[in-house]
Design brief:
The protein is mainly α. The protein has 2 domains: about 80 residues, no CATH class; about 70 residues. The chain contains 8 helices and 2 strands. Strands 1-2 form a two-stranded antiparallel sheet. The longest helix has 19 residues. The radius of gyration is 16 Å and the shape is globular. About 25% of the residues are buried.
């Protein structure tokens, strides 16, 4: 499965940036790649990375192995690794991470427990990741607005 965020729509045709859903997979598997590395891969290879699942340990290993294969193919070295995120805070629908609460307070309307529980894992990841990011703070607000508007349309 490949979760697509509306705020990233402009990057999907060319995969000119690492999509947020792929960044989640990288966090869960402990693989580190740069934008330069990402852009060295063919569009088809980038799309494969978008669609590879990482729900089970076997799927995570497949994802890591494929990235390692690509890294060796393009750069002659193993893919860089870091420890995978332990106990990912976005996977707990009962606990809003402090960074999400703090960042959402800046909008004048904090994320509520009900909102957090109502989001899927990919949505919670987006809010968490963008709440701790130093780059492009407006993306957090765009994503929060996107999720809130989707809930409003359903109501």
């Amino acid at each position: 499965m490949f979760y697509r965020y509306n705020f990233e729509n402009e990057i999907y045709p060319t995969q000119s940036r690492i999509p947020l859903h792929v960044r989640m997979k990288l966090d869960l598997t402990g693989v580190k790649i740069s934008l330069k590395n990402w852009l060295a891969f063919s569009l088809e290879e980038r799309q494969a990375l978008c669609h590879l699942p990482v729900d089970t340990e076997e799927e995570k290993q497949t994802f890591v192995s494929y990235l390692d294969f690509l890294s060796r193919r393009y750069f002659g070295e193993a893919a860089s690794s870091v420890p995978p995120v332990a106990d990912p805070p976005w996977e707990n629908p009962s606990q809003i991470p402090d960074s999400v609460l703090a960042k959402s307070r800046e909008t004048g309307q904090s994320v509520t427990a009900g909102e957090w529980r109502g989001l899927n894992t990919c949505q919670r990841y987006a809010l968490y990741k963008l709440s701790i990011s130093k780059n492009e703070p407006e993306q957090f607000y765009a994503v929060l607005r996107e999720f809130r508007e989707a809930v409003s349309r359903k109501s």
